């Protein structure tokens, strides 16, 4: 195995599946139970805000008490022990990377534990239910508080930071994501274009599997710790 210097890791819902959180597109996933157009678009929020509040309040409650798993912990260990750079770009909003001890994180789809005022764009840590009658602590106007989550049709966060990390990485690892949603699904091509080695760690081949140079398929709690140990064994 090559000794790498700068690793970019993309994570998705599959990483948190063994912590008990639903993924989106598996057969009993979230989008099998909800229409994303109703609960995860600005149009859906304008049409029926209480449906959206109920959806995210329930997801927030479902996430309470959920613990990071062996895969989250292995990534935190990699960040601590790896002599080079490790940055995690997560599509997940569940906060389990932080709970496992990871620090160098980019939350490209936002965070459940944060609220955003759609009127003044102020962000604030938030762990309670959200509702239309809540007033923003910055502009004091009610009716604009929403989860700080990137909805379909909205621009993900920190794309410049992500592009900078991808443009200088020598190893790109994608974990627990189906490769259905852009721009995240396009990161492997960007990494490959600059000559980085590309690895897919996923339960099954993703939509973009053919774009990766290396694949290890299996549950994240098995394949991620094993791959991290391999990386650390050659970089010690
Ligand atoms: N270990 C590893 N991979 C797993 C596991 C597991 N235990 N369980 C499921 N997977 C894989 C599935 O095979 C699938 O490829 O995780 C992937 C989950 O894919 P999605 O449900 O599509 O989730 P994700 O790719 O994170 O979705 C991307 O879409 O809905 C939006 O904004 C939302 O961030 C999300 C984005």
Q: What does this 3D model show about the protein?
A:
This protein is an alpha/beta fold. Helices cover 33% and strands 19% of the residues. The protein has 9 helices and 9 strands. The chain has a 6-stranded parallel sheet, sandwiched between helices. A 3-stranded antiparallel sheet has the order 5-4-6, with helices on one face. Strand 7, helix 8 and strand 8 form a beta-alpha-beta unit. Helix 5 (70-81) packs parallel to helix 9 (220-235). It is elongated. The two termini are 13 Å apart. Adenosine-5-diphosphoribose is lined by residues 12-14, 17-18, 23-26, 29, 91, 109, 176-178, 180-181, 202-204, 206, 219-220.
- Following the backbone from N to C, one meets helices and strands in this order, namely EHHHHHEHEEEEHEHEEH
Return residue spans where pLDDT drops below 50 for at least 5 consecutive residues. Answer: none
Rounded Rg: 18 Å
Looking at the structure, what is the overall shape? elongated
Mean pLDDT: 97
Helix content: 25-40%
Major sheet: order of its strands?
A: 3-2-1-7-8-9
Provide the list of bound ligands, each named once: adenosine-5-diphosphoribose
Classify the secondary structure makeup into a structural class: alpha/beta
Distance, first to last CA: 13 Å
Strand content: 15-25%
Main sheet: strands, sense, barrel: 6 strands, parallel
